[in-house]
């Protein structure tokens, strides 16, 4: 019988550790490492049922993909009910998911913590900054997580310190609290194998397409309980009218909850361009925040210490800032009229690996342009081309390199002994690809 057993969940000062024991048929999806998460506050007084939330939030979707059951000693009863709601959403979204049952010796009900604070998952990008602007009157705690795009590996130490510094400075200027969480969740799971096995079913990768809404919010549970955070917000990537198979959506995030905390998928009523316009209104209103005029966004796909100004996401953000009436150079993006030519060339030459979400975001820009007068001949020429471009064709012609697809196909059906031999080769190929969006 396919099963995953959470053998123990412990908290020592600021560190959570859980042992994961999968049945033999599921071993390939786990590395054998304990699940570890480090917070910047003590979690020793957090009830055990809530301590189990982070590991269950990551293990359960893997179990559902294989029709496996999950066993744990204690679970917060509110979160157990939330898992059923999230499972139903994910199963309706992904037809390869089979479901499974969570069995707990104790489904506990505890008193909610004192406090009416709010928290916001925050990176300093367009989405989370727009979410902050919308909730700034509540002075939300800004929460940053290491473990996904910034891995626990020593090679990412500098990126993590850069993010901590950037978020810390943003918070200090606005008298906000911060929370920094470090987890090995995608090292305890064998994320490359999950990608190899399920990539053919999803547009992005395992975590982006299936796991990250439940996973990232779930990581926050012990910290939220310890700090008395009642409302936890995660900014939307997409918006109403876009029905993509994505791991963070209203019908996932809005269901996530545990005793004392409800989670919210935020800004889903705004397109990405409308979020930039919300940020522009914040920047242009000095009475709202005297530091807003110096606001720098961070969205780059290449670097964390600023924006390269040349990747697809940098160009897309710079174009959007211009349309919103802001100078991209004043907010972290070197951009001039001649860059419009480079954007068009990158599209036409297939220089970027694009997914459906990028297709919708450029369409959002195209729709905005129809209501906005171009400010220069170069801008006019680019938008004239964009208005006629076949975005579906441009996305279809991009994609991951063939050798990556072949490696994934081979790994899907390899026995563990073979997989363990070829894993270093697969991992090296993976390291050469861009990080998940």
Record the strand order, biggest sheet.
5-4-1-2-3-8-7-6-9-11-10
* Total E-strand runs: 11
How helical, in percent, are the residues? 40-55%
The domain tally reads: 3
Order of helices and strands: EEEHHEHEEHEHEHHHHEHEEHHHHHHHH
**Second rung of CATH, namely the architecture of the largest domain:** 3-Layer(aba) Sandwich
Portion in beta strands: 15-25%
What's the mean pLDDT score?
89
Distance between the termini: 35 Å
Global geometry: globular
CATH class wording of the largest domain = Alpha Beta
Flag low-confidence runs: 400-437
Whole-angstrom Rg: 22 Å
Overall SS class? alpha/beta
Summed up, the helix count is: 18
- Please give the largest β-sheet: 11 strands, mixed
Q: Return the CATH topology of the largest domain.
A: Rossmann fold
Protein name: 7-cyano-7-deazaguanine synthase (Queuosine biosynthesis)
């Amino acid at each position: 019988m396919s099963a995953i057993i959470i053998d123990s969940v412990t908290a020592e000062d600021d560190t959570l550790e859980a042992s994961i024991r999968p049945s033999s048929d599921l071993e390939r999806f786990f590395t054998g490492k304990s699940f570890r998460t480090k917070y910047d506050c003590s979690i020793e007084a957090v009830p055990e049922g809530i301590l189990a939330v982070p590991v269950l939030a990551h293990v359960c979707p893997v179990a559902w993909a294989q029709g496996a059951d999950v066993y744990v000693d204690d679970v917060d009863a509110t979160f157990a009910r939330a898992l059923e709601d999230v499972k139903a959403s994910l199963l309706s979204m992904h037809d390869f998911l089979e479901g499974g049952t969570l069995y707990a010796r104790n489904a506990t009900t505890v008193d909610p913590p004192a406090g009416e604070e709010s928290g916001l998952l925050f990176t300093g990008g367009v989405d989370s900054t727009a979410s902050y602007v919308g909730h700034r009157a509540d002075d939300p705690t800004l929460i940053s997580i290491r473990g996904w795009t910034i891995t626990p590996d020593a090679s990412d130490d500098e990126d993590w310190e850069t993010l901590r510094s950037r978020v810390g400075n943003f918070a200090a200027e606005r008298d906000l609290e911060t929370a920094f969480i470090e987890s090995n969740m995608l090292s305890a799971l064998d994320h490359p194998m999950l990608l190899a096995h399920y990539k053919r079913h999803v547009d992005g990768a395992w975590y982006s397409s299936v796991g990250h809404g439940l996973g990232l919010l779930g990581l926050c549970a012990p910290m939220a309980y310890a700090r008395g955070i009642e409302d936890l917000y995660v900014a939307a990537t997409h918006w109403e009218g876009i029905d993509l198979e994505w791991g963070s959506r209203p019908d996932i995030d809005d269901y996530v909850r545990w005793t004392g905390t409800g989670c919210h998928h935020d800004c889903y009523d705004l397109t990405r361009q409308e979020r930039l316009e919300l940020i522009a209104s914040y920047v242009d209103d000095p009475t709202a925040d005297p530091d807003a005029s110096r606001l720098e966004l961070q969205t780059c796909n290449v670097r964390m210490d600023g924006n390269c100004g040349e990747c697809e996401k940098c160009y897309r953000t710079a174009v959007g800032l211009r349309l919103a009436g802001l100078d991209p150079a004043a907010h972290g993006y070197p951009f001039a009229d001649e860059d419009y030519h480079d954007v068009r060339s990158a599209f036409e030459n297939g220089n970027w690996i694009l997914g459906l979400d990028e297709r919708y975001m450029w369409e959002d820009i195209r729709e905005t342009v129809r209501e906005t007068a171009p400010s220069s001949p170069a801008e006019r020429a680019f938008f004239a081309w964009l208005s006629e471009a076949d975005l579906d064709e441009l996305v279809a012609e991009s994609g991951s390199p063939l050798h990556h697809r072949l490696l994934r196909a081979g790994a899907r059906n390899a026995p563990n002994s073979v997989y363990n031999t070829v894993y270093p080769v697969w991992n090296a190929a993976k390291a050469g690809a861009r990080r998940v969006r």
